[in-house]
Amino acid sequence: MKDGLEGGCACGAVRYRLGSAPMFVHCCHCRDCQRQTGSAFVINALIETDRITLLSGDPRPVAVPTDSGRPHEIHRCPDCGTAIWSNYGGRPALRFVRVGTLDDPTALPPDVHIYVRSKLPWIPLPEGTPAFDAYYDLQAQWPAASLERRRAILG
Ligand SMILES: [Zn+2]
Ligand SMILES: [Zn+2]
Asked: How far apart are CA 103 and CA 87, in angstroms?
């Protein structure tokens, strides 16, 4: 089970625990995520902010520009700068936790691959995981229980 997963930043100042499994896990191949990570994609676990326990440290929000103009803040360790999680669209109740910061990132494989149109060509996608050129239809992909959780925080 995916309860009680813990993670943190590179220097160890920030530590956190997830109170439950996330609602859904994105592997995003968009250009913004590539640039912000300096890598091929980002893996984000979408979970309610109130299910995250901050065990130590104080991640600081850094606003980044977006194509849509909607806000995106990346919360980073103030000491080492590791990106821990993001808030998108001015919705602080929902966090996108960077799966690569978990102590065991194998615990949360992606449920979908998105923005595959800008995927780097030498990255193969796994069989059996839905992949979308751009964004996707939440209602069609998310489990009913996760949609219910999302409604509970976002209305
Ligand atoms: Zn740190
Ligand atoms: Zn992205």
From this structure: 21
